[in-house]
């Protein structure tokens, strides 16, 4: 868990105003989370903390790559990811009503652990379809045999005179 200690922001004694923090997300960080959809990657996370008397606003800027399988050709790829997220943290005494719009911490908290938020935002930055334009690379990771099979298979299914549908056409 020492890996996650680096993701604790020292907020006690921090003056009001804007403060910048930088974190690096790598394999050792990602291994701390069970059943993670991401096992490897190199992601930079910049956090801009705007501390105010009764709350904090944190802006997370995520950029980097994660290792995954391409959804098009099933090759191992370094998928570029990026995104911005905002987190609002309010100081409230214990027993305050929870709200999904912000996070509550006690006023005397000395640190704010952002590791789970960084992990969540990295996962949210992964696109639903894991592909990218790798043709511009000198050595694209694509499995061209798989792509050729997919291309041939899709050509076979575009037959306009499919006899299965002819019966339905006669129902008019």
Given the helix and strand composition, which structural class is it?
alpha+beta
Main β sheet profile: 5 strands, mixed
Number of H- or I-type helical stretches: 5
Spatial ordering of strands, largest sheet: 2-3-4-5-6
| Proportion of residues in helical segments | 10-25%
What is the alpha-carbon Rg in Å? 24 Å
Number of strands: 7
Note poorly predicted spans. none
List the topology elements:
Elements lengths: L1 H4 L2 E3 L6 E9 L1 H4 L10 E11 L3 E15 L6 E16 L11 E3 L5 E3 L1 H11 L18 H13 L6 H7 L3
Parallel strand pairs: 5-6
Antiparallel strand pairs: 1-7, 2-3, 3-4, 4-5
What is the compact description of this entry?
Helix content is about 25%, strand content about 35%. It has five helices and seven strands; from the N terminus they run H-E-E-H-E-E-E-E-E-H-H-H. The protein has helices spanning about 1-5, 25-30, 115-125, 145-155, 165-170, and strands at about 10, 15-25, 40-50, 55-70, 75-90, 105, 110-115.
Give an overview in words:
By secondary structure, this protein is an alpha+beta fold. The chain has one domain (2-132). It has helices at 2-5, 27-30, 115-125, 144-156, 163-169, and strands spanning 8-10, 17-25, 41-51, 55-69, 76-91, 103-105, 111-113. Strands 2-3-4-5-6 form a 5-stranded mixed β-sheet. A two-stranded antiparallel sheet has the order 1-7. The termini are far apart.
Identify the notable features of this structure and list them briefly.
single chain; 172 residues; alpha+beta; five-stranded mixed beta sheet; 23% helix
């Amino acid at each position: 868990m020492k890996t996650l200690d680096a993701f604790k922001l020292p907020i006690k004694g921090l003056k009001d105003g804007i403060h910048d923090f930088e974190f690096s997300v790598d394999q050792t960080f990602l291994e701390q989370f069970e059943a993670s959809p991401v096992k490897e990657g190199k992601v930079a996370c910049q956090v801009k903390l705007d501390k105010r008397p009764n709350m904090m606003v944190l802006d997370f800027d995520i950029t980097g790559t994660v290792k995954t399988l391409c959804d098009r050709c099933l090759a191992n790829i370094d998928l570029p990811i990026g995104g911005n997220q905002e987190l609002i943290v309010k100081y409230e005494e214990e027993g305050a009503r929870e709200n999904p719009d912000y996070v509550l911490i006690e006023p005397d908290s000395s640190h704010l652990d952002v590791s789970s938020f960084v992990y969540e935002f990295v996962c949210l930055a992964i696109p639903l379809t894991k592909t990218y334009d790798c043709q511009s690379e000198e050595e694209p990771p694509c499995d061209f045999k798989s792509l050729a099979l997919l291309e041939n298979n899709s050509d076979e299914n575009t037959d306009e005179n499919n006899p299965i549908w002819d019966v339905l056409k006669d129902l008019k």
